[in-house]
Write a structure and sequence with these properties.
The chain is an all-alpha fold and 103 residues long. The chain contains four helices and no strands. It is rod-shaped and about 100 Å long.
Length: 103
């Protein structure tokens, strides 16, 4: 008798609770599957070309400028291309004074 009550209760609960559609039902097949993210290699190259970068760093007018101004000119040239330039060629040890942190 307990088995019959348990099966009846399980059937009632399965009818009353919402479930996802079965794998072969129309409702399941009509929902589009999630697409895999696109490969980064499928996007076009958005960074400046090597010729553009060589033109920026090889400019003769910037050779006689002080180091800080030269880096600012580089940053402005890269900004015109739409690229963020964070002064990677500048030795920051001469500008930023580093002090040891007390441990």
């Amino acid at each position: 008798m307990r088995d019959l009550i348990a099966r009846t209760l399980a059937w009632v609960l399965s009818v009353l609770t919402p479930r996802r559609p079965g794998r072969h039902s129309v409702a399941y097949l009509s929902v589009p599957a999630e697409r895999a993210p696109a490969s980064p290699w499928s996007c076009p190259w958005t960074a400046p070309s090597s010729a553009e970068v060589r033109a920026i760093f090889g400019d003769e007018r910037t050779r006689e400028l002080p180091e800080l101004q030269r880096e600012r000119v580089y940053a402005a040239a890269f900004a015109r291309l739409g690229v963020d330039y964070d002064f990677p060629t500048m030795a920051l040890g001469s500008i930023v004074r580093r002090e040891r942190a007390a441990a």
